[in-house]
Amino acid sequence: MSLADVKKNAQERMNKSIETLRADLAKVRTGRAHTGILDHITVDYYGSPTPLTGVANVTLIDARTIGVQPYEKKMLSTIEKAIRDSDLGLNPSTFGELVRVPTPALTEERRKEMVKLVKSEAEDAKIAVRNIRRDANEQLKKMVKDKTASEDDERRSSDDIQKLTDKFVADIDKMVAEKEKEVLTV
C-alpha cells in the first residue's frame, strides 16, 4: 500500500461518514412533512421485515401530510400500525385505500430536542472522521517502520490527512448548522 492509497482510502471512508450523516439528518423531523422521515420504517410483509417503500408508494399530499398508498389493500392496517409504533410520534389514519400521516407542528421544546439529536448525530460523524484519521496515521507510521516510506513522506501525508479531516469536520458543521436552522424555523 502506498502513501496515496492511504490518503485515498481515508478520503473514501470520510465521504461515507458524511453520507451516513446526511441520511441520518434526513430522518430528523422538521415542522414540514417530507417522505424521508418514513424511510427507516419496516413493515411485516408475509413474515419478513420489509422497508415501507417496498410495500407502498409514499408521497406528499400537502405541506403537512404524507400519503402512503399500499400496493396491496390488505397491507393498510399493517402499515398504519408500523407508522404508529415507530419512534416518530406520528398518528396515521386510513382513508379508503390511503394511509394519511399528518405531521403535527413541532413545539418549541420538541424543536430543541431535535436540535440536540442533530448535534449528537454530528458529534458521532466527527468521531468517525477522527477515527479514520487515526487509522490512516497508524498506517503511515507502520509504513515508516517497515521502511516503505520516509519520515518526511509520512509527515507530509499526515499533514494532508489532517487537512482532509479539517475539511470534513467543517462540512459536518455546515450541514448541522443548515439542519439546525431548518428545525428551528417555525
Provide structural commentary:
The protein contains 5 helices and 6 strands. Helix content is 60%, strand content 16%. The protein has 2 domains: 3-27 and 107-184, Topoisomerase I, Chain A, domain 4 (Orthogonal Bundle); 35-102, Gyrase A, domain 2 (2-Layer Sandwich). The radius of gyration is 22 Å and the shape is elongated. Strands 3-4-6-5 form a 4-stranded antiparallel sheet. By secondary structure, the protein is an alpha+beta fold.
Strand numbers in spatial order across the main sheet: 3-4-6-5
Instruction: Quickly count the domains.
Output: 2
CATH topology description of the largest domain: Topoisomerase I, Chain A, domain 4
Query: What fraction strand?
Result: 15-25%
The CATH superfamily of the largest domain is identified as: Ribosome-recycling factor
Class by SSE composition: alpha+beta
Distance between the termini: 51 Å
CATH architecture of the largest domain: Orthogonal Bundle
CATH class of the largest domain: Mainly Alpha
Overall pLDDT level: 87
Give unreliable regions as ranges: none
The main sheet comes to:
4 strands, antiparallel
The geometry reads as elongated
Question: Helix and strand succession?
Answer: HEEHEEHEEHH
Count of beta strands: 6
Number of helices in the DSSP assignment = 5
> Helix share of residues?
55-70%
C-alpha Rg (nearest Å): 22 Å
Q: Which key phrases capture this entry?
A:
186 residues, alpha+beta, Topoisomerase I, Chain A, domain 4, Gyrase A, domain 2, four-stranded antiparallel beta sheet, two-stranded antiparallel ribbon, 5 helices, 6 strands, 60% helix, elongated
